[in-house]
Amino acid sequence: MKKFFALLIVVAMALAITACSSSDSGEAGTNGGGVNGQSENGGSIKVGLLAPLTGDVAQYGLSVASGAELYIKEINEAGGINGKTIEVIKYDEQGDATEAVNNYYRLVDDGVVGIIGDVTSAPTVAVAQASVEDNMPMVTASATDPSVISYGSNFFQACLNDPYQGTTMAKFAANELGVTSVATIYNTGDDYSIGCNDAFVEQCNELDVQVLSQEGYADGDVDFNAQLTSIIASGAQAIFCPNYYQDDGMIVTQARTLGFTGSILGVDGWTNTHEYTDPENLYDCYFCTSFAIIDDEKINEFVDAYRAENDKDPGNFEALGYDAAMVLLNGIKAAEDAGLEAGTDDYKQAVIDGIANGTVAGVTGEISYDGTGAPTKSIMIVSLDSGSPEFYMNY
Asked: Is a pLDDT exceeding 60 seen at residue 9?
C-alpha cells in the first residue's frame, strides 16, 4: 500500500511539472495556459510578438518590442480588454526569414488571436505569405516594404511604406530646399533601401530634379569613398541615403571628410544616425519619420512613460511598436465586444474588420486604413542641424 501511494505521489508530481512547464515561448503575461486565445478561466487573451531579439538587427526588434510591451502593460493596468488581461507570447526570429516563419507557426499553435510583427522587411514578407491561409490578424510596426500587405487583407502596417518615404523626401528636396540636382547611395542588398531609392528617383524625375548619380554598395561595406567621390564629381547638390543609421553615420562622416557641403537626406532608418558620426557633420541633414520627441501632450505622456519603464528616451521604432500594439488591440476589442469565441474564424475576421474600420490616436499620429493595409497618417521631417534630432515640419 505504501508503495502504491508513493507511486501516486510521483505521478502527481510529474503531471504538475508537465502542466507548469512552458513551450519555451519567451515571455508570457499572466493567466497563461488554455487554448483558442484565452485562458481556461477566461481571464486572458493571447497575443503574439515576433521580432529579432538577437542578431544583426536586434536593435530594431528590441526597440519595437519594448514599445509594444509598454502599451500592453498600460492596457492591462487599466483593466485589460473587457476585464481580460493581455498575455504576450514573444519569440526571437533572429532576423531570419525561415526562423520567422517557424516561430509564426509556433505562435499559431500557442493559440494567439493576433500578432505584432514582424520587424524588418524580408522576414515580414515571409510571415505575411504564411499568415494568409490562417487569416491571422497581424500588424507590423516597422516593415516598410509595400508588398507585405499585398498577400491578404489580414496584414496591416503601422509604419509608412518605402515608396511614400522616398517620394516625400524628393518633394521635400525640391520644394523646401530648392534642390535641382541629386545623387543617391543605397544598399543594393536591402529591399528597404532599394524601395526608397527607386521611389525617390522616380519622383525626382517627375519634378525635373536631375538625378546625376546612383551609387550602390553591399551589405557589410564600411568604405564608401569611391561612391562618394563619384557623387561629388557629379556636382549633385544633395545626397539621398535611404539606409539604416549605422551605414548612414559612416556615409555622412566620409562625405564631409571628402568635402561635400550640400544636403544629405534620409528616411526613417536614420533614427539614430546622430550616434554614429560627429555632431559637426550633421548640418543640413534631414530625414522623414513617423515620430520625433516634440512638445505635444500625447507624445510627452508616451515619452515620460517610456523613460519610467526603460530609463531612456524612445525613438521611432519604440513609438511604432507602441502604435502597432494599439492598432491590434483595437481590433481585438471589436471582436471581444461582439462576444465572439477567441480562435474561431469569426473572431479573427472581426479583429481584422475592427482594425480596417477603426481609428486610433497613436503617438506617431492618428492611424486609420482606407481599403488597404497601409495606414493613412502624416509624416514628420526631422533636422539634425543641432547634432541631434529636432522636429522640423510635418509634410
From this structure: no
Determine contact, residues 313/363, Cβ cutoff 8 Å.
Answer: no
What is the residue range of 223's domain? 163-289
pLDDT of 378: 85
CATH number at residue 246: 3.40.50.2300
pLDDT of residue 272: 86
Q: Higher confidence at residue 276 or residue 22?
A: 276
Kindly state whether residues 280 and 303 are assigned to the same domain: no
Give the separation between CA 4 and CA 199, rounded to whole angstroms.
Answer: 75
C-beta neighbour count of 339 within 10 angstroms: 9
Give how many domains the chain has, as a whole number.
2
Residue 2 lies in a domain: no
Which of 254, 289, 324 corresponds to the end of one domain?
289
Q: What are phi and psi of 359, to 5 degrees?
A: -135, 135
**Does residue 388 lie within any of the structural domains?**
no
- 261 and 170 in a single domain? The answer is yes
- Give the span between the Cα atoms of 276 and 40, in whole angstroms: 49
CA-based angle 376:264:395, to the nearest 5? 25
Quick one: which of 107, 123, 4 has its CA closest to 52? Answer: 123
Question: Which helix (H) or strand (E) is 173 found in, with range?
Answer: helix 162-175
* Strands of the 365-369 sheet, one edge to the other: 359-362, 365-369, 375-376
Classify residue 318: in a domain, yes or no.
yes
Amino acid at 311: D
DSSP state letter for 161: P
User: Is residue 190 a part of any domain in this protein?
Assistant: yes
Asked if 58 and 123 sit in the same domain, the reply is: yes
pTM equals 0.79
Model confidence pLDDT, tens digit, residues 279-324: 999 999 999 999 988 888 999 999 999 999 999 999 999 999 999 9
Same domain? 313 vs 270: no
| Residue 260 pLDDT greater than 60, yes or no | yes
| Helix (H) or strand (E) run with residue 132 in it | helix 121-134
In eight-state DSSP terms, residue 273 is: G
pLDDT at 31 over 80: no
Answer yes or no: do 262 and 145 share one domain.
no
For residue 325, which of 42, 11, 51, 16 has the smallest C-alpha distance? 51
